[in-house]
Amino acid sequence: MNQAAQPASARRKEAVLWRKLLLERLHRLFSLILVLQLIHCFGDYWWTETYRVVYATLAVYGITELLISRALALRLILQVAAALVAAAVYAPVRWLGWPLSWRSWDEVRHFFAAHGEQFHPFAELALGALLVAHALAAWGTNRARTIAIVLVTVFTLAAIDSYFPYELWPNIAWAVLAGLGWLVVIHLRQLRDRHYDSWEALAERPLELMLPAVVVIGVLILAGVLMPRAPVLLEDPYTIWMEAQNKEVPSLAGEGGYLINGSPLSPGSSGSAKSGYGRNDTQIGGGFQFDYSPVMQVTTTQKAYWRGETKAVYTGKGWSDRKGMETVPASAGDKNLPLDPPREKKEGVREVVQTVTMIRKDRVPVLFAAGPPSGIEEIKGGNNPKLFWNSEEWELRFQRPTQLESYTVVSEVQELDENRLRSLSAVPKDGRASVDLSPYLQLPTSVPKRVRDLAEQVTEGATDDYDKLKKLESYLSTTYPYTNTPDTGKQKSSDVVDAFLFEIQEGYCDYYSTAFVVMARTLGLPTRWVKGYTSGSNPADEERARYGGGYTPDPDGAGTYTVRNADAHSWAEAYFEGYGWVPFEPTAGFSIPLPLPKDAPLPTSDVTETIQTPDEETVEPASADWSKPVAIAAGALLVVLAAAWAVWKRRSLLASWKRLRHRGATPNQRIVREMESLVSFMQRRGFKRNPHETLRETFAGWSGRFGSLRAEFEGVLQQFESARYGGERVDEEACARFAETAERIRKAL
């Protein structure tokens, strides 16, 4: 008898467990999935450390919400502790030592303030994500609210996908999947509440209950994911709105701004111009606003400018491509791209490996890389596009602009040996250069004589070609202020360089670099115009430098850089026979990163050094190495031990809490309060009570729905009636029996 009863009891416990997991906890997992899709929108604004902290916190949220049913306070404590521990582990938090005296309020306050501010903003973002997950789970209690949550999430993701450079359709699919699962849980809850007998019968066969829902949802999601892409049938809402206002829809141009009807904004125009890489450079000038949306991420072994295209023909208004340039087909796997002129030797050449991951969904005309590329390791995306290598202009150009996922290229970057450059001439004395230099000395008749006179005046006293170019570079970067909105109303000259130097006298990179090339050519120095992107930003290194006093930046600048539209840039390159093309940066406020020979002194770091107090300077480095990990490990261990002890002692802690809450109450009063708590619990579990019913009528109805608990229902009802209406004082033992019976009912449900 006992042996048969034990398996039956075990089966009942197992059934109760999975029902609780399905109906009372599973929707929390779906809210977690929705939050994960939403935070994906911050991919290029949050650091990697931030995502690690948030993911760790949400992982603890998912585990605790699924495994711990009623102890809300315990769940919250564990989740908040997880956020703090994750921030301490993943964020750039540095142990600063204990207070000099715990009796000094200023010392204690400084101790907590100095350590607490290092958790910003990691802990706040993790706790914010935690709060959103809890809010969604608490609010989505019925079908209408759940549908509203899912629709808001999907519309938010779709809007961001439309107006920002993100591919969020996989996230939308996950959001729809979570919403459908959530609706299934809501439906089963309503089935339990309205038709308990049917629910009881279905719940005995969980596989048959869940399999149809899983199959239907799986088929819907797979059909949406695997269905081939169809052509766009509807215009983007932004395009529809702009056309309804009779306005042009802009598209990206160069740093100078957007293209309107295929042409760049003319000087003095008032278009909505924004920075970005573009194709049309025939007319430079005008103003623009910085667009900080991300374009790509570059993981590189050497910090560099990412060159795209080269222009040699100056028209007086802008730049155009040379005609009849020779190109050769190129593809992934090419290891030795030829150079024109070829390098005689590779002494002082650095091999730079770059993996570029495109963030925007734009089609790109070229592969961006440090110059010059020497090999292509991998290209992902683009459906095997046709690529061509221009060995003279160092361009890897697609036959048609192509949308890529990522690519890896290898470049051979020449170290900047200034001593050697000063010993060389840009043009050989006999005029026999290794490459045809005439395109790089070309100037239109529109260039006035005063441009040549200014170039000669600036370079007066220079004894070699390299110093002449450095004088031009320094003059432009220190004389003319940088602005993205130059006053083009001052322009009178038809030549843009002449107007920049003598009339507008302010501008951005296109003005500086074009002026440098033209002024150098007036001196007989071969130069060309290059456009691409600056290195981008690596804010994590800067933040580590700010928090960590012992941080030393990599002199080569290896790392991962986020390149944005605002990083679109143009600069110049000058030719030296026997050396090759050398980049120059004439734009005010910019500095091109170039590798130096091994014996050259390292440049001063741009990263602000952390100021140390005298006390900090005397601390030995060894103590700083182990103090932070030990403190973090000790804190994490204490949190885990405290949580484990609380779970192990949860019954006694709960009893202590009840005693504290009911302190001063008689046993009769405690039984009445316990009954009120039990009735509230039953109603939360879907047991209805009509306003006109007595408590005995209510319990009679509940006993009919849940016959296995009939004895427990009758027991607590009799004890309640005796305490409430009997007129006699019950003892502590009766109060304890009531609490035990009520706890058995809660466990069974």
Automatic annotation (TrEMBL):
Record InterPro entries: Bact_TGase-like, Papain-like_cys_pep_sf, TgpA-like_C, Transglutaminase-like
List the SUPFAM superfamilies hit by this protein, alphabetically.
Answer: Cysteine proteinases
Q: Which UniProt keywords apply?
A: Membrane, Transmembrane, Transmembrane helix
Report whether Ligase shows up as a keyword of the record: no
Location of the region described as Disordered in the Swiss-Prot/TrEMBL record:
326-348
Q: Which residues cross the membrane?
A: 29-47, 53-69, 76-98, 118-139, 146-166, 172-188, 209-227, 630-648
Give residue ranges for domain Transglutaminase-like.
Answer: 501-588
Quote the PANTHER family the UniProt record gives.
Answer: PROTEIN-GLUTAMINE GAMMA-GLUTAMYLTRANSFERASE
Instruction: Quote the protein name from its UniProt record.
Output: Transglutaminase domain-containing protein
Q: What organism is recorded for this protein?
A: Cohnella xylanilytica
Q: What is the lineage of its organism?
A: Bacteria, Bacillati, Bacillota, Bacilli, Bacillales
